[in-house]
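agent> fetching stored inputs for the fe (ii) ion docking request
agent> found them:
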Amino acid sequence: MLKLTNGHGSMFPLLLSCLCFLNSFGFVVCGFTSSFIRTQWPAKDIPLDNEVFAVPKGYNAPQQVHITQGDYDGKAVIISWITFEEPGSNKVLYSSVEHQYGHTAEAKVLNYTYFNYKSGYIHHCLVDGLEYNAKYYYKIGLGDITREFWFQTPPKVDPDSSYKFGIIGNYYPSSTFNSLSTLDHHMKSGGQAVLYVGDLSYADRYQNNDGTRWDSWGRFVERSVAFQAWIWSAGNHEIEYRPDLGEPTPFKAYLHRYATPYMASKSSSPMWYAIRRASAHIIVLSSYSPFVKYTPSGYGYVANSSEWIGRDTLADCHHAFSDYNSNEAHYMEGESMRAVFEKWFVRQRVDLVFAGHVHAYERSYLVSNVNYNITNGDSFPVPNNLENSFISPHISEYPVYITVGDGGNQEGLAGRFLSPQPEYSAFREASYGHSTLELKNRTHAFYQWNRNDDGVLVQQTLLCF
Ligand SMILES: [Fe+2]
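agent> prediction call returned; pasting tokens
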């Protein structure tokens, strides 16, 4: 799960205003279920010979190039790529001046097998010591077969650093034309990085978890992720637990292919980590790992690590907290995680919690159900300004929950919402789409969701913290 939150301290005024704004609609005005009927593109695969999956020309050419943040504060990137014929060069040449590569960093190279699939040579290279708010060029490959890319580092970590994130989930482009539309829209949105809320290649939907689908997915998204950091969180399609195939290790392909800077936030698991980027503190949680108290990478780590608390924060996870997703699909799957983490979210004043998994869009009001326990019968989320016995009644303490598993999955949309619409649900629509979160300064941000197929800006929300 990926969560976006504002913690205590300098970002608190921003969070507070946001809550005030949203609460003015609160539970007085009913939520809205969109009646929009989208034009159905078939949820079928793009043929693998389509140009979007093209293998770069040349012997052992680097492919599936992708970058993510490489440290806690945004002054490093991890550059990853794959070669197939041989390991090739493990060096990244980089510079802030185009074509004048004065710096070198070395990658670690690994590979894996999964049933009858053998991966290429996966390179992960940490490039650190970068300047904030700077453009860097990098080159990978060997001899005449080299490829060049660039990326922009974020501004310094500061409550007033503006930054625009794209939020994408369940992006199945090995894949469908819906996903192609999502990526095109994101690349036109001005998003500077992506919060990816899980479910990547959907290789597990193919016979014997066809590993070549991981490769085609990597080539498909390269056009964006080679140039800007995507912040990864794992979904259920990454588990790939198949003891019947002799593959009992969960997340095998995902963990080999997608590096995260987890050690920078003192985590023991690459699927649980925290980073700061511009004015955001981002926490990535894993919906499919042990997370209750006393588990090494779960609640104990999240609740006690200084990297996770007392800072300005956003968070990601894969499946929605059940109370805050009113779609029939996957309803209640996230209840155990809500029971463990919601109190912590409220105490740490998390602002926004993003989840994927459900193939539709939904946004909640500012709500909390932390007062509920199995003996008091209060199993009902309350809006932000109601007093309860568990926390102080300050209006700024509850998060907004946003489900964005609408990137364009293979299975099709989740079109059946529970009726009537729960009071906590502000807006819901079963369309493919993409979101952006634009952090302006310590007091204001814009969140917007666009459906893909008509390009209409459906909902824009001013967040005042
Ligand atoms: Fe999922």
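agent> quick read of the result: Residues 1-29, 386-395 have pLDDT under 50 and may be disordered.
agent> awaiting further instructions
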